[in-house]
Write a structure and sequence with these properties.
Layout (H helix, E strand, L loop, with lengths): L7 E4 L5 H12 L3 E6 L3 H13 L4 E5 L5 H15 L4 E4 L14 H29 L2 E6 L2 H5 L5 H21 L4 E8 L5 H4 L3 H10 L8 H12 L10 E4 L6
Parallel strand pairs: 1-2, 1-4, 2-3, 4-5, 5-6, 6-7
Helix pairs in contact: 1-9, 3-4, 4-6
The structure holds NADP nicotinamide-adenine-dinucleotide phosphate (NAP).
Length: 248
């Protein structure tokens, strides 16, 4: 039997990058996969077909994770289509980098809304089906930047640090109902989000990482599969770094 067989997962922001890697790994592990996208409907539809061709039930939904009402409607729709939700992966995220001196209020609000409020929105909505079935695994994508800070990313770092406090609090609140809540803190993972950076800077980062490479979406997805599965049944309230030793 595959690790996630019989489980239903909801992943936010899976049209590309880490979210897409997690959706593919979950499907390979036998999970039914519901996922969201926002500005890339074609990529969302292509992923739905790809996952279905892997022999699992899959459906993409266009939904803004930062919108409270939309998140609630999404969870209702997923439960209607799939029966329940066993695993929630809060992956949707954006960057609007600038030094504090130049950071606009809009850049602050957009990042906090898409990265942090989204986690509240989805957890709030998904706790209903998870409480009902008295089990669930919530996995939130934080970042090493949320642990250590980063010049030029005060909005992003604050959102990712906020996710850590939220994740631990939810673990304390819902542990007695067998609902687990953990955070993944990736280091430098090479996706479209990081492709926008200049090559010289990127090579400098690779050289500074003990494992001498940027991570892949699959490196992060492997941990997500473990945290989603019953192999991690006694693990909750934790932040696990996937950073090639960068934060050591
Ligand atoms: P990415 O390539 O930019 O992909 C982001 C995904 O999030 C896209 O699928 C996008 O969908 C979706 N999204 C953005 N805002 C959304 C919203 N409001 N509602 C629903 N979906 C939304 O990013 P990534 O590099 O894979 O990163 C994924 C997560 O890991 C993020 O939370 C990021 O902060 C975190 N992380 C990444 C790294 C890294 O090095 N890459 C490091 C640490 C943490 P559309 O394209 O359809 O809009």
């Amino acid at each position: 039997m595959k690790l996630l067989e019989g489980k239903v997962a909801l992943i936010t922001g899976a049209s590309r990058g880490i979210g897409k890697g997690i959706a593919e790994s979950f499907a390979r592990s036998g999970a039914s996969v519901a996922f969201t996208y926002l500005s890339s409907p074609e990529k969302g539809m292509a992923l739905e077909e790809e996952l279905k061709s892997m022999g699992v039930k899959a459906k993409g939904y266009r939904s803004d994770a930062g919108d409270f009402k939309a998140a609630d409607e999404l969870v209702t729709a997923v439960c209607a289509d799939f029966g329940t939700i066993d695993i929630l992966v809060n992956n949707a995220g954006i960057t609007r980098d600038a030094l504090l001196m130049r950071m606009s209020e809009q850049a602050w609000d957009e990042v906090i809304n898409a990265n942090l409020k989204s986690v509240f929105n989805l957890c709030k909505a998904v706790q209903k089906p998870m409480l009902k079935q008295r089990k669930g695994s919530i996995i939130n994508l934080s970042s090493v930047v949320g642990i250590k800070g980063n010049a030029g990313q005060s909005n992003y770092a604050a959102s990712k640090a906020g996710i850590i406090g939220f994740t631990k609090s939810v673990a304390l609140e819902l542990g007695s109902r067998n609902i687990r809540s953990n955070a993944i803190a990736p280091g430098f993972i090479e996706t479209e989000m990081t492709a926008a950076l200049d090559e010289k800077t990127v090579q400098g980062w690779r050289d500074a990482i003990p494992l001498k490479r940027g991570g892949t979406a699959e490196d992060v997805a492997n941990l997500a599969v473990f945290l989603a599965s019953d192999l991690s049944a006694y693990i909750t309230g934790q932040v696990i770094n996937v950073c090639g030793g960068m934060l050591t």
